[in-house]
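In line with agreed milestones, the collection of sequences with tokenised folds has grown. One record among many is set out beneath this paragraph:
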Amino acid sequence: MSIADRLTELGITVPAVAAPVAAYVPAVVSGAHVFTAGQLPFVDGALPVTGKVGAEVDAATATAQARQAALNALAAVESVAGSLDRVARVVKVTVFVASDPLFTGQPGVANGASELVGDVFGEAGVHARSAVGVAVLPLDAPVEVELVVELTD
């Protein structure tokens, strides 16, 4: 089954790649790998929620935002790879969580991104991951996601 067919089966539409908010590109290819810039959970060019997880944003909402940010990262991958069918495997997912100082549930929030790539790529979506709590993210986003994927020839 193609990734496009899998996305249709899951009811997922890959959005247009998000415009950078500073001086960088959304993704680059180096050798057989794509490295994405950190992707925020934009929907139609806007952040649906802002604030710190564990304060203004609850963990369930942040998990959904991590899923959206990962979807935006897939859009960045597709923009340089030409097709998500070229993804041989997801190598690494990094999730930054803007956290209230008492919030320690970063791994659960990061599952929103991890589960999305697993749903889309199956066994090829099994990856290494870092879930990092940070003081603040650009535009007061609650999460930011980076992907490293390996491409087929």
Notes: The beta strands are 27-30, 33-36, 87-98, 128-134, 143-151. The radius of gyration is 14 Å.
